[in-house]
Specification:
single chain, 4-stranded mixed β-sheet, 10 helices
Length: 302
C-alpha cells in the first residue's frame, strides 16, 4: 500500500495517466505515482477531477477526503470492499461472537482511557484527574455497559480544556484541529480496513445502521488521544486554524511511534494494527493497542 498523504489546496485540474496522478496548475503538470499515495486531501472548492480518476483511485485503494469552504473535512471517498477474500473475511466478522466483541471493546476502552490519562500526564495537567481516569479502567465490564468511556471523556476534556469546553462547539479552535486530525486517521484506517478485506459497517461496538464506518470508529478510539496531544500542542496560544496547522496535522502519519517493540511511522503502525485485528478475528491473535507514551512528535517533513 502507498504511504503518502497528499494535500491539494490550489485551484487545479487532476487526472490519471500511466498510473500517475497528474495535477495541472496553470499549464504545468505535477506527476505523483499512484502506488506512493495512501490518501488525497482535496481542500479547494474549485478543483476539477474526472470520474475515471475516481474509479482508478478506488481500484488502487487510494482514499480521498473532501473539505468544505471552511477547510474542514466533510466527506470521504474510497474503494468499496474490493478484496479477493472478502466473503471469507466477512464470515469471520459475522461469526465472531457477541461475547468476544464485548470483551474486545472493553480492551479498546481501557486503551483509550489510559492514553487520555497519558496525555494529561505528558502535558503536566492535574495528576489526580489522570489517576481518576485510570481508575475507570478497573470499573469497566465487557461491552462497557456502564459507559466508563463517556465518563472518562468528560473528565479528560474538562481537565484538558476547562469545564466550558464542548466538542460540539465549532467556535473553539481546538475542535477544528481535532476534527481535522480525527478525519485523517479515520480515513487512513478506513482505507486499510478495505485493503485487508474487512467490512467497515460491522463494528466491534458501534452498530449505527447509517454509519458505513462503524468498525473504523471503533478501531480509532485509542488513537484519538494521540491526535489530541499533537493538535493541542500546535494550536496552543493560536488564534486561527491556519494552512500551516493543516499541513502539520496531515503529516501526523509520518511521525514516529514505538509499536510491538519497533520504532516505525505512525502510518505503518496503523497498518500493523489493522492487520492484527484481522488476525484476531481469524485465530484470536492478541490485539496490541498503540500507547501515547510511545508516540514521538517528530516527522521527516513538517
Amino acid at each position: 500500500m502507498g504511504y503518502k498523504v497528499v494535500l491539494i489546496e490550489n485551484d487545479v485540474k487532476m487526472s490519471i495517466k500511466l498510473n500517475n496522478i497528474i495535477i495541472n496548475k496553470e499549464g504545468h503538470d505535477i506527476w505523483i505515482s499512484v502506488d506512493d499515495v495512501s490518501l488525497l486531501v482535496v481542500d479547494n472548492m474549485k478543483i476539477t477531477l474526472t470520474s475515471r480518476m475516481l474509479s482508478y483511485l478506488a481500484e488502487h485503494n487510494v482514499g480521498m477526503v473532501f473539505c468544505d469552504s471552511k477547510h474542514l473535512p466533510i466527506g470521504y471517498y474510497g474503494d468499496y470492499d474490493n478484496h479477493s477474500h472478502i466473503s471469507k473475511i466477512l464470515n469471520y466478522q459475522i461469526q465472531y461472537s457477541q461475547e468476544s466483541y464485548d470483551e474486545l471493546w472493553k480492551k479498546v476502552v481501557i486503551a483509550k482511557l489510559n492514553n487520555q490519562a497519558g496525555v494529561l500526564d505528558i502535558l503536566g495537567k492535574n495528576s489526580d484527574v489522570s489517576l481518576k481516569i485510570k481508575g475507570y479502567c478497573d470499573e469497566i465490564t465487557d461491552g462497557d455497559k456502564s459507559n466508563r468511556e463517556a465518563h472518562g471523556a468528560k473528565v479528560y476534556f474538562n481537565e484538558l480544556m476547562g469545564t466550558s469546553f464542548s466538542r460540539g462547539n465549532e467556535d473553539i479552535l481546538l475542535n477544528s484541529g481535532l476534527d481535522y486530525g480525527y478525519t485523517i486517521i479515520r480515513s487512513y484506517i478506513a482505507r486499510l480496513c478495505v485493503g485487508y478485506g474487512l467490512n467497515c459497517q460491522i463494528g466491534i461496538h458501534h452498530k449505527n445502521e447509517y454509519n458505513r464506518f462503524n468498525l473504523v470508529d471503533d478501531l480509532m478510539e485509542p488513537l484519538r488521544p494521540i491526535v489530541d496531544l499533537y493538535t493541542y500542542r500546535i494550536l496552543e496560544g493560536q488564534e486561527f486554524f491556519k494552512a500551516e496547522h493543516r499541513y502539520k496535522i496531515i503529516n501526523i502519519v509520518n511521525h514516529y511511534i514505538r509499536y510491538r517493540g519497533k520504532r516505525m511511522y505512525l502510518g505503518n503502525m496503523l497498518e500493523e494494527y489493522v492487520m492484527m485485528f484481522s488476525k484476531n478475528l481469524k485465530d484470536g491473535t492478541e490485539l496490541i493497542f498503540p500507547d501515547v507514551n510511545d508516540y514521538e512528535e517528530y516527522a521527516d517533513e513538517v
